[in-house]
Amino acid sequence: MEFIARTQAFLAAQPAALLWGLAGIGGLLVLGSVVAAVLTIARPKQDYRELRQRMSSWWVMIGLLAAALLLGWQATLGLFAVISFIALREFLSLAPTRREDRLIILACYLAIPVSYAFIAADIYGIYLVIIPVYAFLILPWLMAVIGQTRGYLSSVALFHWGLMTCVYNIGYAAFLMRAPPWEAPAHAAGLVFFLLVATEFNDVAQYVWGKLFGRNKIIPKVSPNKTWEGFLGGWASTAALIWFVGPLFTPLHGLGLATVAVILPVAGFAGDVTMSAIKRDIGVKDTSHLIPGHGGILDRIDSLTFTAPIYFHLLAWFALDKF
Amino acid sequence: MVWIRWLLLLLIVRPIARFLTGADVTGREHLPLKGPAIVAANHNSHMDTLLLLSIFPSRAVMRVRPAAASDYFLRDPVIGWFSRNLVGIVPIARGKAGSGEDVLAPAREALARGDIIVVFPEGTRGDASDEMAALKSGVARLAEAFPDAPVTPVWIQGAGRVLPKGEAIPVPLNCAVLIGEPVHWEGKRAQFMDQLRAALLKLKAEAPPLRWT
Q1: Which of chain B's residues have a Cβ under 8 Å away from the Cβ of A90?
Q2: Which of A90, A99, A285, A287 to mutate to test the interface with B (most CBs of B within 10 A)?
Q3: Coil, strand, or helix at residue B23?
């Protein structure tokens, strides 16, 4: 009984919008799982294993994120640090590297605890520059010191690109958790929740619009499955979601809300396409098999590497006094 | 002692192997879960052994015994203790091969007890370029002695980047582990070795590109 009472007290302390939001996502998960199960039984000849795998993976991913958001900034920061590590490991594993780069690769991983430490310490000014400026200077210097000059510039660019996307940009999602509760209607967790919902909704909406109405290819050289219809339909759907649901979770309104509604879907699309270009260059379809039915973690967070910093900066510009 | 090994494998070896390699496994359903069985993998790094120990489910991992060179792993008493008791190696006296002594006797005894023996038929670690060296025929002699034991080919890609031969510090990078359908002994050594080689090369061709020079 004490456990139930404590759980009730814990949930009562959470913002109502966040709990309703999580419950809504939970409802969608149940619906998706029911559809997958019904399809499996109703059409035994078709193979729905991938759909079921996809749904199970969504349960795990959303379960982890929901638990972290409810537990607070420390848990969320820890989860995003792990996501950064796995994503960076995937990126560095796919990228062309050489035996003499091993020390530099280790140094790249070291940037993760350093960068996240400044989020934990809530020192925004240093977080802003530690990877873009200082990791950018230190890694090439290290390479020069150990006398590694073969393919120098392309290696420097490669390592920095990995750090910026997987560590620095993803870190913004964790840093949003340090927003003070009075600056957002559903507290800091609501801000992160809405970023994740809008980003994933955009991915799904583009996919669905493309499947239903897709005719004209948008960038056939990079992503042959992406169409103008998918892009525009996803853009409009996500913009509407942000415009109507955004005020429940963010302090945005008017011009600020409209700006996020217009820009975030485009950023998500851009992140997706950029990662596709890299995968095409390397010659893989998925970045790993970590998440059954989805591929690797980079396949899942590609849009987020673009939407997280933009969402953060727009919030900081239009609404959050702290940043 | 036995259950200490089990706990150490599950609580220490497995998380370390996952951290360092990502253990990106495909074809997990082909993995043998009971002995006697033989797993034949390519070999570029000490990580290969840790990685293979980490991908077996907890109910089978106690049965897994990597065959390893006694001249290398048993010469130092401390490493020897870990090799025997934690890793659970079956010692192979490489230097005595061809001397008339039966160097495979410990492996055969383990198979008779119902263990799953992991062998690296290349005989030693190669470099990380992931070229496969010529296969030694010891695995065929084990298969001949246990014709009902499945021989499961496993291609491990990228372990030579995590910990190349001659390096001491591991660097986390994803490794793909591709497990193929088992090969069976059909009576001829040369034919068996050709089948095994072909199975390994087929798995290698399915692996994601490795851009490592």
Answers
A1: 22, 174
A2: A99
A3: coil
The per-residue pLDDT for B128 is 62
What pLDDT is recorded for position A120?
A: 96
**What is the band of A274 on the pLDDT scale with cuts at 50, 70, 90?**
very high
What are the extents of the domains in chain A? 16-71, 77-178, 179-323
E strand or H helix that includes residue B25? strand B24-26
Binary contact (B209, A102; C-beta < 8 A): no
Residue A89 to residue B22, Cβ atoms within 8 A: yes
Residues A89, B172: C-beta atoms closer than 8 Å: yes
Cross-chain CB nearest to A92 (options B24, B173, B208): B173
3-state secondary structure A87-155: HHHHHHHHCCECHHHHHHHHHHHHHHHHHHHHHHCCCHHHHHHHHHHHHHHHHHHHHHHCCCCCCHHHH
pLDDT tens readout for residues A94-112 = 888 888 889 999 999 999 9
Q: What is the pLDDT of residues A231-255, one digit of tens each?
A: 999 999 999 999 999 999 999 999 9
For chain B, give every domain's residue range. Answer: 2-206
| Chain B CB contacts of A92 below 8 Å | 173
Look at B174 and A102 and tell me if their CB atoms are within 8 Å: no
Give percent above pLDDT 90 in chain A. Answer: 64
Q: Give the pair of three-digit tokens for residue B55.
A: 């991908």
Cis preceding-peptide flag for A247 (omega within 30 of 0):
no
CA-wise closest residue to A97 among A165, A162, A155: A155
At A255 the pLDDT is: 95
Chain A residues with CB under 8 Å of B161 CB are 93, 97, 99, 102
- A282–B161 C-beta distance less than 8 A: no
pLDDT for res A167: 96
CATH number of B2-206: 3.40.1130.10
